[in-house]
Amino acid sequence: MNITILDGGMSRELMRLNAPFRQPEWSALSLIEKPSAVQQVHQEFIAAGAEVITTNSYAVVPFHIGEQRFHSDGKMLAERAGRLAKSAVQNSPVLNTKIAGSLPPMFGSYRADLIQADRFADIAQPIIDGLSPYVDIWLCETQSAIIEPVSIQKLLPKDNRPLWVSFTLTDDKPTPEPQLRSRESVQSAVEKMIEIGVSAILFNCCQPEVIEQALAITKNVLQQHQANHIRTGAYANAFAPQPEDATANDGLDEVRKDLDPQSYLAWAKKWTAQGASIIGGCCGIGVEYIDVLAKNLKE
């Protein structure tokens, strides 16, 4: 199986470079105040073996930068995120690196309860328009509810660029089977993604322990619907379980001491055993993790 290596989390890499990074802007602050650091992180991930880098547009939403700044600068910041990723590829010896345009949760990570169905276009369209000249793949990531990617898919340019959708799963307490943070089932999410024509279904921004079973369910549903052309993948975070009333990025969570690069590789091998062919990392998964993934999964 041909494995595609994604990049890892942006936030801690920016902190490592002493780039500006604080609440509420989160990773968007470096985009605003020190864009060169964003490009440097992209280039380091490419050098470590990432074949797909993700634009630093995750925090370019009103939840992080505020309604007023989003209204005035949202499209410009998304465009800057796309341009920095493109510059990173052009300044790298690996010129075939693909760029995934990050389309984040529009109303706050993990918070399906905050979704305003009538505002998707208001927030998503400027991000899409800003990123569009630069991206090879659209990536709806850290999606807590099925309505999120369904609403976004309708807004994307009709130019056949692939849409990848990545869901985040509950990981704060055991459940009979993995579920989205909205409490919707993985099976129903996969069935809807088949219906809207996605190219890949992934799971991210949750503990690695809950992803393996979700991939197994996804594999079975794709087989049942004769949709094996849809790829699957995973990029977990390195945090302790997040309670259901938590909001991702409301503070810098402590990274698990038991999840070093070799331990993370062991989980990645379990995911590939379930058919996953797109592997990377989310929050807390740095350049050194991607280096280990690339050296061990691409042999």
Give a written overview of the molecule:
The protein has 299 residues and is α/β, with parallel strands linked by helices. Helix content is 41%, strand content 12%. It has helices at residues 11-16, 28-33, 35-48, 62-65, 67-90, 120-131, 147-153, 186-196, 211-224, 261-273, 287-297; strands at 4-5, 52-54, 98-103, 137-143, 163-167, 200-204, 231-235, 278-279. An eight-stranded parallel sheet has the order 1-8-7-6-5-4-3-2. It is globular and about 45 Å long.
List the SSEs and their pairings.
Blueprint (H helix, E strand, L loop, with lengths): L3 E2 L5 H6 L11 H6 L1 H14 L3 E3 L7 H4 L1 H24 L7 E6 L16 H12 L5 E7 L3 H7 L9 E5 L18 H11 L3 E5 L6 H14 L6 E5 L25 H13 L4 E2 L7 H11 L2
Parallel strand pairs: 1-8, 2-3, 3-4, 4-5, 5-6, 6-7, 7-8
Helix-residue proportion: 40-55%
Whole-angstrom Rg: 17 Å
Count of DSSP strands: 8
- Number of helices, counting only DSSP H or I runs of 4 residues or more: 11
Shape: globular
Which residue ranges are poorly predicted, with pLDDT under 50 across at least 5 consecutive positions? none
Determine the mean pLDDT.
94
Characterize the largest beta sheet: strand count, sense, and whether it forms a barrel: 8 strands, parallel
Structural class: alpha/beta
| Terminal residue distance | 11 Å
**Strand arrangement, major sheet:** 1-8-7-6-5-4-3-2
User: Into which percentage range does the β-strand content fall?
Assistant: 5-15%
Brief summary:
The chain is an alpha/beta fold. It contains eleven helices and eight strands.
